[in-house]
UniProtKB/TrEMBL annotation:
InterPro entries: Impact (IPR023582), Impact_N (IPR001498), Impact_N_sf (IPR036956), Ribosomal_Su5_D2-typ_SF (IPR020568). PANTHER family: IMPACT-RELATED, PROTEIN IMPACT. The lineage of its organism: Eukaryota, Fungi, Dikarya, Basidiomycota, Agaricomycotina. It comes from Roridomyces roridus. Residues 41-144 form the Impact N-terminal domain. Belongs to the IMPACT family. GO terms for cellular component: cytoplasm; ribosome. Pfam families: Impact_N (PF01205). This is Ribosomal protein S5 domain 2-type protein. It comes from the Eukaryota. Keywords: Ribonucleoprotein, Ribosomal protein.
Amino acid sequence: MYQYYLRPPPSWAASLRRPYATFDQGHWPNPLHASSPLTDRKSTFLAYASVLTDPATFPEFLANLRALPGTNIKRATHCMYAFRAAGVAHQSDGGEGGSGDRLARLLQLSGSEDVVVVVWRWYGGVKLGSDRWKCISKVAMEALDKGGFRHGPEEQEQRKKKKR
């Protein structure tokens, strides 16, 4: 399933402007849900969310994301992620100190289980300060919402009652 180009592929910025409803998800068995790219002062943020039932398959998931055609994820400056799967929670900052904790907290507060969220940042040369947290959270929540992974307080209470 290789794509051959007669001319060079579009630049990464142009590929980020494409709609993400039709992207090829590669060999990952579960659906991928992508946020819209968010650009703030030359930095671009993009998030992906998917089902992750076994923590041992996370490296395969990340490799699949890096191999997606039409995106230039390999050139991203930061890769932040968090997942909750099979009773295991894990996160990584990817060079953005504290961002992994923020993503893990988002998964915990939304009551998400067996899910992974990955946020990519392409640094644009301008420091965003605390606004970067808003951007990271916004794209992560959008990807989780597209996948239906975030649950309201009422749904969380119902899930707790069912587990008892």
